[in-house]
Amino acid sequence: MYKKVLVPLDGSDLAECMLSHLKSLHKDGSVGEVTLLNIVTIDIPWAELESGHFNLDALREPVFASSRKYLAEVESRLSSQGIKVKTESLEANRPASTITDYAQKNGMELIIMATHGYTGLKKLMLGSVASGVLNQSAVPVLLIRPEACR
Q1: Who's near 140: CB < 8 A, 6+ residues apart?
Q2: pLDDT per residue over 87-97, tens digit each?
């Protein structure tokens, strides 16, 4: 059994498609506590920065509020099925590194996430957070391909 599981979510339907697999693993007794992690990035309006009218906290507040609201909705759905859930919103520009660092620092035993399933040139051009997590993680990673969500 994996007592502490990290589930990175980006707010997309694709990222959430793996939740059905998470629920199944929980029913089987393979998963204990789940931490939902949402990585946010703050887009800095460079024109405002140059004019001197720039308030980073004012930019962060709505982004983090939206992230917390999203995670609370997912938490509610999972908790209603008896899954113990925590949530975390973090600001970062490198999601894969942030996910793997968080997992290691917080004693996570497994990372479960969806992948877009890109291959070849498309994967090379677009990159992949899931691929980065898989390559950087010291913690086991379970990747759910989009085909498995249909």
Answers
A1: 109, 110, 111
A2: 999 999 999 99
